[in-house]
Amino acid sequence: MTVPPQIRLANEIAIQFHHRPPDEAAAAIANHIRMFWDPRMRSELITRAETDTADLDPLVLRAVRLLKS
Q1: Are the C-beta atoms of residues 14 and 27 closer than 8 Å to each other?
Q2: What is the mean pLDDT of the chain?
Q3: Using CA atoms, how far apart are residues 42 and 19, in angstroms rounded to an integer?
Q4: What is d(CA 7, CA 56) in angstroms, rounded to the nearest whole number?
Q5: Hey, is 52 helix, strand or coil?
């Protein structure tokens, strides 16, 4: 099964922040997504995070919660 691009990209970003404390990492991931991702990509990631969490890094799930608030 192919991983959707939004999930793959978000997970790749998360890898770069694994060395930080979880709250700080999630905030950095959310900030990166806000700054550099097209709104449609953000929306798709949020939708997928609500319905299909199996492929998402736990830090991405935390970042998505920040994106929604």
Answers
A1: no
A2: 95
A3: 24
A4: 6
A5: coil
Instruction: Tell me what pLDDT residue 56 has.
Output: 95
Q: Which residues contact 42 (CB under 8 A, 6 or more apart)?
A: 33, 34, 67
15-44 pLDDT per residue, tens: 999 999 999 999 999 999 999 999 999 999
Alpha-carbon distances, residue 20 vs 4, 26, 34, 43, 66 (angstroms): 26, 9, 19, 26, 17
Residue of 64, 55, 59 lying closest to 7 (CA atoms): 55
For residue 63, pLDDT beyond 90: yes
Residue 29 and residue 17 in contact, taking contact as beta carbons nearer than 8 Å: yes
Task: Find out whether 53 and 65 touch, Cβ atoms under 8 Å.
Answer: no
